[in-house]
Amino acid sequence: MSYKKWIYKYKYLKCEFDETKELRDKYQKDFNLKFTFKDKQTHKDPEINKNPNIDWDIELEENINEEDHLTISPKKEKNKKVKELYKKLSKKLHPDKGGNEKDFNELNEFYESENILEMAIKAEELNIEIEDINEHFSDDNFLNLCSNLEEQSLFIKKTLAWRWAIATEEERKILVQLFEQQHGVVPIKE
Question: Please, are residues 130 and 120 in contact by the beta-carbon 8 Å criterion?
């Protein structure tokens, strides 16, 4: 598949992922407003810290950093084409050249992780010509980046807050019971 097709696929998946994160944040906020839990094993009723960014996941006990799944592991020697593209982009995005700090920092993250797909998207947005990108970036790399976005969206949809938000009343009761059992907590506010 040509890199332009991969870019469109990646943009679609990125948009879907961003929308999923927005919904997750809303669902977590709604869930946190409805429930407060305390630890079953203590008698002092301490509330569990419910940071709005925590994924209250009822299946997976592991933490997954979203950013780790959106990048390819950095290599010791940067690809020559990646460096060239970085230089072209930094000439437009650097704050001293009329860009803004947020975009430039984002570019640096893409460069460090060799996420050439995100760099290519930035180049396309800025009308910067990319030479022979297909030679330096394989379908496997594109597939990896796209698959990681899909996995992250699926992970978010397995969280307790997400499932609770889309569940029926009966299913909500079951989900809260599962959460209580897995985390050794009981609700003190519902």
Answer: yes
Residue 77 has pLDDT above 70, yes or no: no
Q: What is d(CA 62, CA 178) in angstroms, rounded to the nearest whole number?
A: 17
Cα separation, 153 vs 18, whole angstroms = 9
What tokens appear for 145 in the block? 């980046």
Q: Which pLDDT band, with edges at 50, 70 and 90, does 23 fall under?
A: very high
CA gap 32, 189 in Å, rounded: 10
Residue 46: is its pLDDT beyond 60?
Answer: no
Angle ∠(110,155,33) on CA atoms, nearest 5? 105
SS3 call for 47: strand
In 19-65, DSSP assigns E strands to 36-39
Q: Residues 155, 140, 146, 114: is their CA dihedral positive or negative?
A: positive
Give 133's pLDDT tier (boundaries 50, 70, 90).
Answer: low
